[in-house]
Amino acid sequence: MNAVLSAQVEILPLGHGDVDEMLAVEQRVYPFPWTRGNFVDSIAAGYSVWGCRVAGELIGYFVVMVAVDEAHLLNLSVDGKRQGMGFGARLLRHAMRSARQAGAMVLLLEVRPSNDRAMALYQHFGFQQIGLRRDYYAAAAGREDALVLQYLLEEISA
Where are the chain's structural domains? Predict the structure, then answer.
């Protein structure tokens, strides 16, 4: 049996005590990572912050901001050594359900067009492009655009 499947996998709420672990994953995954302040501020603001742990080790997380009937997926990250194993899909499903439970009817996000794994994940779930933000992300050669995607949450049971 696959060791990952036999290990205990939990999706749990995260808080200030988890910031160091989130920051470590973030810095391994992205060339332009979120800062400690981004995580601390998101938690302090009451955003939905959840993590996926395998045998106690934080291997991924998401941050969702809900405002009235709209949710915004601000960050979804899975440690590089765990990518491609279904953890991103687990986290995204949980983010969608928690946003719906909070009253959101739509989930929005920005993604780099060059982030092939993220693009494949969002396309698999049926996200649709609704916009483009020019020069949104820092990049090695200046700036990179962001695609704005949306998913209508009416299909997700609260």
Answer: 3-155
Query: How far apart, in whole angstroms, are the C-alpha atoms of residue 54 and residue 60?
Result: 9
What pLDDT digit, counting tens, does each position of 24-43 carry? 999 999 999 999 999 999 99
Give the distance between the most distant pair of CA atoms in the chain.
46
Residue 128 pLDDT > 70:
yes
| Active site positions, annotated | 110, 122
- Please report how the helices 36-44 and 19-29 are oriented relative to each other, as an axis angle in degrees rounded to 10: 130
Report the distance separating Cα 59 and Cα 154, nearest Å. 29
Using a 10 angstrom Cβ sphere, with 0-12 exposed, 13-18 middle and 19 or more buried, the burial of residue 114 is: exposed
**CATH 3.10.50.40, applies to 3-155:** no
- What band does 149 get if pLDDT is binned at 50, 70 and 90? very high
Assign 118 to helix, strand or coil: helix
Residue type, 82: R
115 is in an annotated binding site: yes
Identify the residue whose tokens are 């205990």: 8
The answer to whether the beta carbons of residues 59 and 78 sit under 8 Å apart is yes
The closest of 123, 116, 124, 114 to 149, measured between CA atoms, is 123
